[in-house]
Amino acid sequence: MKRSKINLPIILLLTVLAVYFGLFLVYPIGFSVVKAFGGITDPTLEYFRMLAVSPLQRKSIINSLLIAGLSTAGTIILSMPIASLMVRAQFRGKNLLGALLLTPMITPPFIGAIGLKQILSRFGSLNLTLMELGILPADKPIDWLGYGGFWGIVILQVLHLYPIMYLNISAALGNLDPTLSEAAHNLGAGKWRVFRTITLPLIIPGLFAGGAIVFIWSFTDLGTPLILGFSKIASIQVFNSISDLNTDFMGYTLVVVILAISLALFFVSKKLFGIQKFESRTQRRREDIEHPLGATGTFLVWAVTGLLIFTALIPQIGALLHSFSGRWFFTPLPSEWTLSNYSDVFRQSLTLTSIKNSLFYAGLSAVIDLWIGVAIAWLLTRRKPRFAFLLDAMAMLPLALPGIVLAFGYVAGFDWPVSWLNPRQNPAILLIIGYSIRRLPYMVRSAYAGFQQANPRLEEASLNLGASQFRTFIRITMPIIRANLIAGTILTFSFAMLEVSESLILAMREQYYPMTKMIYQLIGRIDPGAPSVACALGMVGVAVLIFSLVTAAKFLGKGMGNLFRV
Q: Which domains does the chain have, with CATH numbers?
């Protein structure tokens, strides 16, 4: 469609978007950056020098980079053979298996960390089982979590994030022309040489794109190290600095380092992923590309992949068992079972309030995302203003923006006398806005896909017949894109329900706690039954998330996977 003249309603819409992004995205990030350099009037690099010479901060950054790097490598090792098999093989139950491969994404690692700690701690279920079988001496338990929880974080991140890498690698492999590999085989090249010289170079953009998401996610994760008690990590150091923002500027400097690494990876991956010359789409039929597996092959695929899925779900299974435990102490499984933990969730005022708060925050943030996401998608597809690239960049930037960076900026930048916007007094507004900012890309992508499916000629015909722009949208466009909007709204709501970083940092008073902050508080209590109630609360959130994802999948279908790619 040709670029239209910008009229008054469009100017007002762009003004609202500019205020929204400027106040709640650019300002808090800019505030942290300016503070890290000593302010506008007297800029300095002294705080970065102090960061470089501090043994604790250096170790924290190195640990974060190691965890992110190992997690990324682990997801590639797991995902590459599975993605190759799922793209190139045809067998019974393939679609079901593809859906099951994504199930580890359902539960945030924050909740899975509770179950993993119960199973893999020194006197957790695994060691106690090995002791009972006589395989392990009772006085020499194995430290499965390793180095104070370091390897536990890596294990949990790999098991939780491999579906993201799997989706990106599958998309990259699906775009390859299989005749290239066939030609190489016909010329005598072996499988490894074909992979090294043809397949790998062609899928590098997709590989790097998935790796960027996994790396940023692992690098900035806050909830998992908090639960596992591993403090020498950059995200924990930022979290601990919240209480001393006015006297200690190290937190600002760390935030800038985290932001620089995240943005660099994101934009490099976007550039690589957009290189069209590496893509080689084929017009061959799917049946010609996929090779059927026999009964034995199908059994082996299900057995191996099923084992991976089960292993990935072990942390969630541990949390689920914990939620039904009345007593679980020095035994492989709970010695007492009860449903009272779930009744406590809905009976105790604080836990019930946290559920209501999460529903309220997530619900309003989803509504905001719906309106803003539709407006941005409409502008990008129908009006195409000259600075569309900037609008698109601002809408997609939250994909690369760690929640801990945004939340830190809110606490530092909105420490104003206005109580309703100061998170130390009332974090509700900033929690809602923060949730909406972080989940906006999902809504924009979903709405954008819907607008692309809607033929603009239908809208032009309606306008030519005298209908207003609003009536045209309601009567013509809306019925076509309704499924995309419903799915996008459900996704933004469900992921906001279990947001971790912003919830832990911004919610400073109990009456405003969302579910994830309440779970963290319960885990830290001395009461022996509190962790079980925390797990029950987490399972309530997971149930809401599963229901939301299943509902969204019914509307988006296979398009769901596109939302988790760079």
A: 1-34+341-566 (1.10.3720.10)
